[in-house]
UniProtKB/TrEMBL annotation:
One of its GO terms (molecular function) is transferase activity. The lineage of its organism: Bacteria, Bacillati, Actinomycetota, Actinomycetes, Pseudonocardiales. Residues 271-520 form the CoA carboxyltransferase C-terminal domain. Keywords: Transferase. This is Acetyl-CoA carboxylase carboxyltransferase component. PROSITE patterns: COA_CT_CTER, COA_CT_NTER. InterPro entries: AccD/PCCB, AcCoA_carboxyl_beta, ClpP/crotonase-like_dom_sf, COA_CT_C, COA_CT_N. One of its GO terms (cellular component) is acetyl-CoA carboxylase complex. PANTHER family: PROPIONYL-COA CARBOXYLASE BETA CHAIN, PROPIONYL-COA CARBOXYLASE BETA CHAIN, MITOCHONDRIAL.
């Protein structure tokens, strides 16, 4: 049924006509398209929204919107919604806005009307001070509408940037996302992808094949595993949409609605003064022995729950959200189980972005340090480790949220400085009684400082061993930094959780003055 040209005779007739029009939008008339969507291993847009929002809370806007384009047969294909569902609902009781592509309608492609719907809901989210989530499953720009489709993307990008650091922006890739469309997820705070369902690339396999001769599949070029583990373009990776959308909901529960609010606080049965005696056996005193820092984090935080970001990319550093005494914190930690926990190009980028995100949304930072330095080598130097390492340094220096550093074992060289040391603005700094803070490890230092003496000695190895012990005794004992005011205290590892909770409680009302400037100029 279509809308009649005659005005309804009375209100009841008008309501009946309204229901008839709405039936054109509902899944009943899209049964074949829905079956095709399921055959691809994907949920329909309405099924996704049901999983995302609290039951019965989603309110759609501009459901009856239709495009006005003509040519190439578009004038005969004017479905309602124009291939995107927009509106708002509640997640754990809090208002969240959404736009979700409907691949069943015009392939979810973006035209003028489609883009204007997205612009409107983004503007509403900004005005309401509420997060916005995009569920991407579209064929890109609607070619038949030409440059107006490209202009529509421009309007989205401009709003992504305007909302950056103001409201949380979450991108969930649940189908193809190609060409210019990929830049919107890249501008948002978090990107979720699903194996076998999500693809994201600037140019597709056909273009790659014609230009370079390389034969590559959609998954190999821009699949979920590629972006979660190789490019770093996606923070979260899942095997199915249900699990993915459940974690989108969980992430929302950890974030404030906007930059003027604090993250939600929840009651916890995990005692604030719970001791962490297992850490004494979990972390080996030998600085050269590996261990899993995740186990340390899980021992410290509420109920052992860490929501890790970029879990499969740059694994030599861990970034994630957790709670301490019910309050959300961002955790940055070296991972000795991967590359000995060194800092390199990718780990510096990963941590810098995470620190900036936490700072933007008033999430305090806890930095757990066990770092031997920056990764040496030509590839790192030529790849720009200087400027990439500077990104992490810049992010910490610029952060005004409460910042607490905890040094577990070693902290050497520039990596010690960069990992939120007191000298770059950490509010409170603690260390375990096996900590080693120095320019470099004792062996390397002795080889430099006593090089000539060792070379001239009758027994070079014995002399080297003596000088190593001397260097350790004089400059690397656990209390050297504390004696000079670079540590606030050396603590029993069993008190790590309670120490962090007490420190963050003291800093909760922290206020920081920011220099008057248009914006900083961070390294790229």
């Amino acid at each position: 049924m279509t809308v009649t040209e005659e005005a309804p005779r009375d209100l009841r007739a008008g309501v009946a006509e309204l229901h008839a029009v709405r039936e054109q939008v509902e899944p009943g008339l899209l049964a074949k398209a829905s079956q095709a969507q399921h055959a691809r291993g994907k949920l329909t847009v309405r099924e996704r929204l049901d999983l995302l929002f609290d039951e019965g809370t989603f309110r759609e806007v501009e459901q009856l919107r239709r495009h006005r384009a003509t040519g190439f047969g578009l004038e005969d294909r004017r479905p309602h919604t124009d291939g995107v569902v927009t509106g708002w609902g509640r997640i754990h009781g809090r208002r969240v806005f959404v736009y979700a592509h409907d691949f069943r309608i015009l392939g979810g492609s973006l035209g003028e009307a489609h883009a204007e719907k997205i612009h409107k809901v983004m503007d509403l989210a900004e005005a309401a001070g509420a997060p916005i989530i995009s569920l991407s499953d579209g064929a890109g720009a609607r070619i038949q509408e030409g440059v107006t489709a490209l202009a529509g993307y421009g309007g989205i990008f401009r709003r992504n940037v305007r909302c950056s650091g103001v409201i949380p922006q979450i991108s969930v890739i649940l189908g193809p996302c190609a060409g210019g469309a990929t830049y919107s997820p890249a501008l948002t705070d978090f990107v979720f992808m699903v194996r076998g369902v999500s693809q994201m690339y600037i140019t597709g396999p056909d273009v790659v094949r014609s230009v370079t001769g390389e034969d590559i599949t959609h998954e190999q070029l821009g699949g979920a595993d590629v972006h979660a583990s190789v490019s770093g373009a996606a923070q979260f990776l899942y095997d199915d949409e249900v699990e993915c959308l459940a974690d989108v909901r969980h992430l929302v529960s950890l974030l404030p609605s906007n930059n003027r609010e604090l993250p939600p606080v929840v009651a916890t049965d995990d005692p604030a003064d719970r001791e962490n005696g297992t850490l004494l056996d979990l972390v080996p005193a030998d600085p050269n022995r590996a261990y899993d820092m995740r186990a340390v984090i899980e021992e410290i935080v509420d109920d052992g729950e860490l929501f890790e970001v970029h879990a499969t990319w740059a694994t030599n550093i861990i970034c994630g959200l957790a709670r301490l005494d019910g309050h959300v914190v961002g955790i940055v930690a070296n991972q000795p189980a991967s590359l000995a926990g060194v800092l390199d190009i990718h780990s510096s980028e990963k941590a810098a972005r995470f620190v900036q995100t936490c700072d933007a949304f008033s999430i305090p930072l806890v930095t757990l340090v066990d770092v031997p330095g920056f990764l040496p080598g030509r590839d790192q130097e030529h790849g720009g480790i200087i400027r990439h390492g500077a990104k992490l340094l810049y992010a910490y220096c610029a952060a005004t949220v409460p910042r607490v550093q905890m040094i577990l074992r070693k902290a050497y060289g520039g990596a010690y400085i960069v990992m939120d040391s007191r000298s770059i603005g950490s509010d409170l700094s603690y260390a375990w009684p096996i900590n080693e803070i120095a320019v470099m490890g004792a062996e390397g230092a002795a080889n430099v400082v006593f090089r000539r003496e060792i070379a001239a000695a009758p027994d070079p190895e014995e002399t080297r061993a003596q000088r190593i012990k001397e260097y350790q005794r004089e400059l690397m004992h656990p209390y050297y930094a504390a004696e000079r005011g670079l540590l606030d205290d050396v603590i029993d590892p069993a008190r790590t959780r309670s120490t962090l909770i007490e420190a963050l409680a003291v800093l909760r009302a922290k206020r920081a003055d920011i220099p008057a400037r248009k914006h900083g100029n961070p390294p790229t």
